[in-house]
Write a structure and sequence with these properties.
The complex is a heterodimer of chains A (294) and B (105). Chain A is of the alpha/beta class and 294 residues long. Chain A has ten helices and twelve strands. In chain A, strand 7 and strand 8 form a beta hairpin. The relative contact order of chain A is 0.20. Chain B is globular, with a radius of gyration of 12 Å. In chain B, helix 1 (50-61) runs parallel beside helix 2. Chain B has three helices and five strands, in the order E-E-E-H-E-H-E-H. Classes of the chains: A alpha/beta (294), B alpha/beta (105). The A-B interface holds A 91-93, 95-100, 102, 104, 106, 109 and B 43, 46-50, 52-53, 55-56, 59-60, 74, 78, 82.
Amino acid sequence: MTNSKKMSFKIAIASGKGGTGKTTVSVNLSNLLNRNRYNTLLADCDVEEPNSALFFSEKQEMEPKECFQKIPEIDSEKCTFCGKCAEYCEFNAISIIKNLKYQKVHSDLCHSCGACSVVCKHGAIKEIDHPIGSIQHYRIKDDLNVVEGRLKIGSAMQTMLINQVKEFIDNKAEILVFDAPPGTSCPMVETVADADFVVLVTEPTPFGLYDLKLAVDVVKQLGVPFGVFVNKAGLGTDKMYEYLKAEEIMLLGEVPFDRNYASKYAEGKLLDTKESSMDSYYEYLVDEIKRRLN
Amino acid sequence: MKVLITSTGNTANANFDLRFGRAGWYCIYDTEDASTSFIENENKDRQGGAGTKAAEQVAALGVKKVISGDFGPKAKDLLNQFSIQMVILQKQDTTVQDVIDQLKK
């Protein structure tokens, strides 16, 4: 299992700014790689709003897997109110008031690190499973699958669920495509950190450029090879290209802005557009991936 | 009775702090002997849970009334549990001394 996991080539599709086209690129790229005869799995790690699967009209939906986090429960009989657990809790998720013999766990602050149960000398802490969401597996074809994390409403455990999505992938696929959540915080880092290659999707607007710089900083710090894919080309300014040139960042491709295409997206019909017309924009990106696979 | 007033500094001349969990200082005013003491809020820069920590502190100190600009949901729950009265005072430019004077009236 471990060996086969190592063998899949992991591509993360990320961006700083939201709405640049991560899902568009993820879906098109996965489909195109599959048509190039690669066994491909698309993992939607945008667990707060997974939507990659929507674009595949014919799919077989598997039984969802429920996901949990461990949250401590304090046994009042055994607890001495020493306060060690609260002291070690980095997230202030435990309230202990010694003189009032009061204890409470704030489950929405808990990050399930387990420090409290390690530090409790009185065996007063038991860890209980709390649901954080689910993982849904869709089989599109034998050699094309989509897996998505779906965060439970109200849960703040995005990163933990993304981690569980990654664990879930068994992997027979040669190529894994991770559709990352927007931004540059923990959930994005969790998604791109162990990728073999990151595609940063951006748009040539001042907003796109500002957030791209943040994302570039993150992937550089993580030491993951990356390139930039410009979506909605023709909008905005030339500043994006000046930046890419100055920083010597690889331009992986461009898709021109097209109103009709945007409405196709809104209808969930990304993959129904004329194949030949869209494919050409991804040629270089697919070639780059092939180069890296060898 | 002990009353806690959120403060930006450690003297009665300091401005009243509108924040509860992230206030700079806490002034404990004792209505029995009109004495004041100040405690620095060690949790004000915590990433999360500053409000609950503050509420715990209030309960442990035996305070019966808290005056601040507002209270977050988790702090509210805890303070309610210990029947500590919350007083919301939405007044930016006022000193802790002014608040104490109002209490005396």
